Amino acid sequence: MSFRGGHMRQDDTNYLERHNDDLVNGLSSKVAALKRVTIAIGDDVREQNRLLSDMDNEFDSSKGLLQSTMRRLGIVSRAGGKNMLCYLILFALFVFFVVYCISR
Fold first, then answer.
1. 57-89 per-residue burial string, b: 16 or more CB within 10 A, e: under 16
2. What secondary structure, in 3-state letters, does 27-77 show?
3. In which band, very low, low, confident or very high, does the pLDDT at 12 lie, cut at 50, 70 and 90?
4. How does it assemble (predicted)?
5. Does the pLDDT value for residue 46 go beyond 60?
6. Long-range contacts of range 90-97, CB-CB < 8 Å, 24 or more positions apart?
7. Among 62, 103, 63, 70, which Cα is nearest to 89's?
8. Residue 9 dihedral angles phi and psi, to the nearest 5°
9. 7 CB burial (10 A radius; 0-12, 13-18, 19+)
């Protein structure tokens, strides 16, 4: 590839064009692969956001249920005295133990 006097030989020009075309094709395939990866990442992010939103809704409903249960427990403990509170705590522990055994 000699470039002398402002003129390039035809063989050099053809070689450079072929080489440039090869580089463009390689770059094009890399851009296409990068596009596929970014689309996959975008899909994954949308799916994870949906799952997080669902989890947030579930936690909100669980929080409401737990608050309601605690309010009722407070009412029962004030009305029934210390023995009733002990029975409630034992019953709650029993329920948690059964749920734990079932979930394993």
1. eeeeeeeeeeeeeeeeeeeeeeeeeeeeeeeee
2. HHHHHHHHHHHHHHHHHHHHHHHHHHHHHHHHHHHHHHHHHHHHHHHHHHH
3. confident
4. Interacts with SNARE complex members GOSR2, SEC22B and STX5. Interacts with LMAN1/ERGIC53. Interacts with STX17.
5. yes
6. none
7. 70
8. -70, 155
9. exposed
Smallest CA-to-CA distance from 88 within 80, 103, 98 is with: 80
Instruction: Look up residue 77 and give its amino acid.
Output: S
Q: How far apart are CA 35 and CA 38, in angstroms?
A: 5
| 76, 84 contact by CB (below 8 A) | yes
Helix or strand holding residue 23 (H, E): helix 10-103
- Please tell me whether the overall predicted TM-score, pTM, comes out greater than 0.85 for this model: no
